[in-house]
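Sample A.
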Amino acid sequence: MGFGDLKSPTGLKVLNEFLADKSYIEGYVPSQADVAVFDALSSPPSAELFHALRWYNHIKSYQKEKASLPGVKKPLGKYGPADVADSTAESKDEDDDDDIDLFGSDDEEESAAAKKLKEERVAQYEAKKSKKPALIAKSSILLDVKPWDDETDMAKLEACVRTIQMDGLLWGSSKLVPVGYGIKKLQIQCVVEDDKVGVDQLEELITAFEDLVQSMDVAAFNKI
């Protein structure tokens, strides 16, 4: 695994593709993994690599507090996408699983009675399976939304955040938490359906209020 040389166009392209559906290098909050990769860059990614540039600007806002971010910094090569060889091996394992015949070998000669019994059991299994209610995976997420300064209208900021309406998104309680120097951040709860709403979607929509919002972080993430 790894991004390769992050000072080269190839390495930056790998980083950009890796961050296409992720907010951070590891997990749902900024960590020492982000610090390690950030420090390996010689300059900000170009505007064409917008996923990497979004992540770079976000992590840059933590430079004063990067030493206190969670996690243990590992060698740079430990971060990034999995090797093609690993993916191939995994794909081969899945193919092997697909080859398993749960009902016996087709090469064996079966009597008409045995075939009928097998068909009945398959039909019973499918009928039983179809009656099971589909489980909807949900998560409870606590978001930290940071303003630019102490002059930001926090009531307006919260109102803007709550205007974001999506199928599978439900806003909950909120409060203002002091950060320092008179600045307060908005801490707001939401419940999402995992198949419909992602953290990256929320971050893009919230940070789109760029006159009010400096950044958005996940303070807590729990499956329901």
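Sample B, a different protein:
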Amino acid sequence: MPRLEGHCWSCSCSSRMKAKDLSSASWVSSKAEEMMSIITSVMRHAYGSLHSIRSANLIRRGLVLFTIGVFLALVLNLLQIQRNVTLFPEEVIATLFSSAWWIPPSCGTAAAVVGLLYPCLDSHLGEPHKFKREWASVMRCIAVFVGINHASAKLDFANNVQLSLTLAALSLGLWWTFDRSRSGFGLGLTTALLATLITQLLVYNGVYQYTSPDFLYVRSWLPCIFFSGGVTVGNIGRQLAMGAPEKPHND
């Protein structure tokens, strides 16, 4: 009998201990689920806020780049017209592209696209661009780019090949001085090729023309201008993106 009572007591005690352990485990599990739900909601809210901040920052940077592109297009196109490098038809409203009104918004859009692509490409390639990242360097880069455009309109060489080689050397010097990145060189070269192709199509369709063309329908130094312009706008876009929240990249 004592043995039986002891057995019953031990069974009841063990069952109470198991029940207590199960209740403790369920309480811990419920608290863990509650904490996980809180952490998930906080992370979701933080991600939504970060996404909205990134979107607003992207739009703001795009508008700044568009404005800079429009301003540079107005100044540089006026210089080319005054030096009779580019000629537009006299009709103003004869066709959709008979006037030069479309040049500023087109250049502004291109500047926004290129300027936003540069920091994205840097992040994608894992190549953080930290070479002379300051506004003073960016302003010097813009000054050199304007000087290259001024040289293309005002310098007189024996032939266009010498002028093209000179501007090509200046453009590469601009990239080496203010960029020196693989992504900058590749995207600048891509910009030059695409912009030159589009210009060839526009001149071929009679939208406007170049005096003394020597590279199909345009001047042979035109890709150098587009290359240096792409590098310049890319540096502006990188500088604008410095204060923006970016995705982490692998070194």
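Observation for Sample B: The chain is about 75% helix and 0% strand.
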